[in-house]
Amino acid sequence: MTNKKILNREQIRSFQKDGFLAIDSLTTQEDVAFLREIYDALFAERRGRNRGDQFDLAGADEEGQEAALPQILGPARYAPELNDSLLRRNCSLALSDLFGQVVEADFSHAIFKPAQHGAETPWHQDAAYWNPAVIDTAVSVWVPLQEATPENGCMHFVPGSNVLEILPHRPINNDPRVHGLELLPELLAEHVKAVVACPLRPGGATFHGGFTLHHAPANHSEIPRRALILGASIGAATRTVPINVPWQQQRQTAREMRAAQNQNN
Fold first, then answer.
1. What phi-psi label fits residue 235: left (phi over 0), alpha (psi between -120 and 50 degrees) or beta?
2. pTM above 0.70, yes or no
3. Domains, the chain, ordered by start
4. pLDDT for 144-153, tens place per residue?
């Protein structure tokens, strides 16, 4: 990795203060076209479904039902050429700037919002999905492969929410069949204030930590909304008192059943 800098000191300070950062460009439009072709093929072929890596994040994920918010975990497992992209190289550099040490970014997941009816990604903290026995330093990088707007589902953040602990969550719509999580509705008025929307051009990026509250609206536009999410971590510290996360035990999803069956085969 070179010593090239992607983020300046002001951007790094802004991220540390607010818990998120948006930048206009993390890669070229040529690279975006390369990534979009791979992305569309992955979703068209439903790659990773048998392993539980492809599923509906916002629905019951039943066979024969159109997914409201399709997601693929670890997309580079199914398209290793993603790792050769300029996006991954530049993302690694940007995250190294944030962490103050060299890290390598990985493709964590891809989320697709179909045109006109792609579901909302509700307000949540990524840390609500994680191991409650540790405090992870992971940062996620959200990259749209077309223009991202409030109409089609760009990212929204609550500045300063990065100082919060893990707040109570539940499966979306309190349905244990749904993998996705949402902040308890009764907590929205207290914690979701001074929201900042982050529209982006293709290949732009937002960065956020695991405790930062964020969401992405439904896609009401005429075009699909494609997003790749990368990330890195410099490790996790063991909690002296583990956090209680009952919502992780409440879920009984088709995704988890497929993943378990794949492990047993």
1. left
2. yes
3. 9-264 (2.60.120.620)
4. 999 999 999 9
